Amino acid sequence: MRVGERSEDIGDLMRYRHRGYHKNIAVQTGRIGTVRVGDQDLSGRGALMKGKAKMSFFIVTMTHPDGDSWNRHLADHVSYLQKLVKDGILRASGPLKNMPHRSGFLIIFAASRHEVEAVVSRDPFAREGLIENLTILEWDPLFGIFAAESSGEVAALLAQASH
Description:
Distance between the termini: 35 Å
Number of domains: 2
CATH class of the largest domain: Alpha Beta
Largest sheet: 5 strands, antiparallel
Oligomer: single chain
Shape: elongated
CATH architecture of the largest domain: 2-Layer Sandwich
Number of strands: 11
Structural class: alpha+beta
Strand order of the largest sheet: 1-2-3-4-5
CATH topology of the largest domain: Alpha-Beta Plaits
């Protein structure tokens, strides 16, 4: 089974599996069911835990200058991103299309914004001064492939509001 893949669909209750974590989500009501690591129930504890650090998703966008430097460092940049994928830090990335400048988009899973800044600073594009604009935004994926790793905070609020 792949990360975030749905393993059961029982009416409006779906069960997701990710690296030993299980989360039941009642889709129609928005209620969170259970989050388990082995026999330990982590329901209501926010984002899934990796070790003791709370992990979050971050959306990173960057624009790059035109010119030959970008092409010269592209292979190193791609190798670096592939290592981040292998390490479970980078969940998805790619170029943004139809933009006025060369731009990239990354979804990073990390413990803090500071950690994301450190990851970006080690990118060959950053070391070579090839990032003109950078944005880092914390993101809580409620729907889709990353929903099983949501903090559950919004869904918990929806469940409280429905009572």
